[in-house]
Amino acid sequence: MSASPCRKVALLSVLAFGISALLFLSGLLDTFELKAYDYMSRHLNPRSASDQVVIVAIDQKSISALAGQGISWPWPRQVYAPLLEHLSEADAVFMDLLFTEDSSYGVADDTVFAEAMQKAGNVYLPLLLTDTREALSSHDAELAQEISMDGPIASGISSRSLIAPLERFSSVSAGLGNVMIRPDEDGIYRRTPLFFQAAEYTIPHFVLPYLLGKKLVTVHDNRAYTSGREIPLSEGMMLLRYSRDAYPFRTISAADIIQSHLESISGKEPSLAKESFRGKAIFVGLTAPGLYDLKPTAVTPVSTGVHIHATTLDNLIRQNYLTQLSVYPVILFMFAISVTVVSSVLRYHSLATSTAVFSTAVLTALAAPALMFSYGLYLRVIPALITAVLSFAIAAAYSYAVEGKQRRFIKRTFDQYMDRTLVEHVLENPELIRPGGRKKRVTVFFADIAGFTTLAEQLPPEEAALILHAIFNAFTEVIIRNRGVIDKYIGDCVMAFWGAPLSYGQDESSACRAAIECMEALQDLNVSFAARGLPPVSMRIGIHTGEALVGNLGSDRLFDYTVVGDTVNLASRLESVNKVFGTRIIMSRETFAGTADLFLARELGRIEVKGRSSAAAIYELIGFRKSAAEKTRDMVSLFQNGLELFRRGEWQQAGEIFSRVLGYIPEDGPSAFYLQRCAPPAGTASLTGCSDIITMTEK
Q1: Is 203 in contact with 159 (CB distance < 8 Å)?
Q2: Looking at residues 44-59, what average pLDDT do you find?
Q3: Ramachandran category for residue 513: left, alpha or beta (phi over 0 → left; psi -120 to 50 → alpha)
Q4: Which residue(s) pair with 451 in the sheet?
Q5: Do 138 and 104 meet the contact criterion of CB atoms below 8 Å apart?
Q6: Residues 6+ apart with CB under 8 A from 646
Q7: The CA-based dihedral angle spanning residues 592, 596, 600, 606, taken in that order and rounded to the nearest 10 degrees
């Protein structure tokens, strides 16, 4: 791509990227990004969850079971005592219930519950951060100082105060942590802080004291780690990787736990053995309708706080994190998409290609983040998607409005005299048609109607024009079909060339094939001319291959895509040499050498052309080698022998061979030509000594 197209790509890419980056950094895309995050969570998150985490649900079954025994909700706190006793072999029991006020059943009720917690030794209680109080009370400040984390650890939520459990409970609990988390701006719980700020104290998350005590989580240098791996936090928040399964954790009704405990103390085999909870992390929480606030998550519109806390613990135990990539990879991804889309649209201008480019860019913008998400890396989706759409829209609009007009003009102009593939090449490389030229190896083709001037004088102008139009029309189709370029029509002559603006590596063969097909087309035309009472027409063709100046040559006002130079002049002379030998198609040695022996041809000798320092070897193109008749092959071989004898000066023997050829083919012009030279007679071309060099003084 030249400097100018590169400049266009750069400017349009920067424009599309700049608009997309502005939308991204302004936050206008955040709502859409959250929805994309939810969609990936529902379809790409893992299904499995840790079997270490169990939820004991205070569900409708539990409420109904105890109501049948005359115990209404809220339960007396001593009801939790048998539940805690039966779960005493668990690693941890997280009571996701607030015990911030004295029991309405009296002090004895609280005492039984406190003693059960102390005996179990594995119960973690929640506290609640709040802004409803102006400051911490002395008791709360003392508690906050006791559970506070050391060091200025980054926290996600800051509050003025906290609401703690009763002292009789907090003093016997295994640990305290905050359960108050806030949803995203759309009300969905996607992330949670691990540390919270209450006044000047750093309060851990509900599950963190357990993990810190077990050394499953460590904190140093103001960062949290699991097994030496840093826990990825974004603005102090950890993205929660919810399971796609609607019920990822084993869930047991609280009534079944209590019933199992009663069965155990009565000597019966409990339905749920106490030992089955050994080593587990148990969450006790409310799931009965009407007892909990709906907490929608990224994977479900209905969930509970206890499921969110259980997911937090599960992510930390299994190190099943989502790492949100920073803004820089997002920006780089956006820029790469912008450059790719813009450059592709400006380079490939077909509707199908543009659609494919756009589709590929959109799929990449979606697939790359999706693949990374499935491996725990969160690359934001919407910015890259918006970049793909804007880049395509801007590039397509520019291409249609600015370049489309130029392309349509070029296509209309060049489509008339070159193959569609060549036109597309010119459209993709418009610098080829700018004024100026460059040297290239080309094969030049001249086809002239023999004696057309005399013929035109004998016919009415309308009939002469009709013949000329029919011939040019047929020859043009043949040349373009063989990937040649029609240079110009010069009176009754057609000039064409191969090798520019695009070379296929078989230009000489293509030109020779076109010459043979033109002669075949002329035979069909003569049949149609005869049917209309018109005289037959004959053609002469000359072909030469060599270096030439190729390009848009002419003035600023008027120019043509053409070729000029000695190669063109010699091709024109070869067309005229047909008159000397009585042949139809003559090509140079350079052209014949590039045909890979596909054609049957015979050497005719050498010609000297004014302005050239050396003679050029020439050949008559007879036809395709594979389809040539045996008689024709024999004639060519016999003629070649005669030419070798002629060059050695053995005139009599050479003349005898040429006579034999004429005996086979009386109209063979080259044999008649050399038979005369064996005398030697004078001709339209002068003979230098007795060699095969013919000097052409004029066309």
Answers
A1: no
A2: 90
A3: alpha
A4: none
A5: no
A6: 654, 674, 677, 678, 690, 692
A7: 20
Same-domain status, 401 and 433: no
For residue 572, being part of any structural domain is answered with yes
CB 231 within 8 A of CB 321: yes
Residue 562 dihedral angles phi and psi, to the nearest 5°: -150, 180
In a domain, 325, yes or no: no
Burial category of 456 from C-beta neighbours within 10 Å (exposed 0-12, middle 13-18, buried 19 and up): middle
**210 CB neighbour count, 10 Å cutoff:** 24
**Cα–Cα nearest to 204, from 235, 176, 164, 234:** 176
Among candidates 80, 414, 128, which has minimal Cα distance to 257? Answer: 80
| Res 411 pLDDT > 70 | no
Same structural domain, 661 and 567: no
The mean-pLDDT minimum among 257-271, 313-327, 459-473, 590-604 falls in 459-473
548 & 639 share domain: no
CB within 8 Å of 491: residues ≥ 6 apart: 452
Provide mean pLDDT across the span 533-538.
83
Handedness of CA 50, 52, 53, 56 (dihedral sign): positive
The model carries a pTM of 0.62
Q: Which two tokens stand for residue 610?
A: 């004014």
Position 130 confidence tier, pLDDT thresholds 50, 70, 90 = confident
pLDDT at 650 over 50: yes
Examine residue 329 and state whether it is found in any structural domain, yes or no.
no
The H-or-E segment that residue 442 falls in is strand 436-449
pLDDT, residue 528, reads: 87
Burial of 227 (0-12, 13-18, 19+ CB in 10 A): exposed
- In this structure, the answer to whether residues 339 and 424 fall within a common structural domain is no
Looking at the fold, whether 172 and 87 belong to one and the same domain comes out as: yes
What residue type is assigned to position 203 of the chain?
I
| Cβ count within 10 A of residue 666 | 9
- CA pair distance 545, 230, nearest whole angstrom: 71
Beta strand residue intervals within 161-317, DSSP E: 161-163, 175-178, 191-193, 195-198, 201-204, 218-220, 223-226, 229-230, 237-239, 250-253, 281-286
The closest of 213, 187, 429, 181 to 309, measured between CA atoms, is 181
Q: What one-letter code names the amino acid at 646? A: F
Residue type, 327: V
Main-chain phi, psi angles of 287, to 5 degrees: -130, -5
Please check the confidence at residue 686 and state whether its pLDDT lies above 50: no
Q: Specify if 324 maps to a domain.
A: no
Which DSSP state fits 88?
T
Nearest alpha-carbon partner for 616 in 693, 678, 506, 676: 693
Look at residue 493 and give its three-state secondary structure: strand
- CA gap 338, 336 in Å, rounded: 5
Q: Find the mean pLDDT for residues 316-320.
A: 92
Closest CA to 172 of 87, 275, 255, 84: 84
Whole-number Å distance between alpha carbons of 340 and 337 = 5
- Do 490 and 520 lie in a common domain? yes
Tell me the residue range of the domain where 12 lies.
Answer: 3-29+335-414
Residue 466: pLDDT band (50, 70, 90) is: confident
Number of folded domains in the chain? 4
Same domain, 684 and 551: no
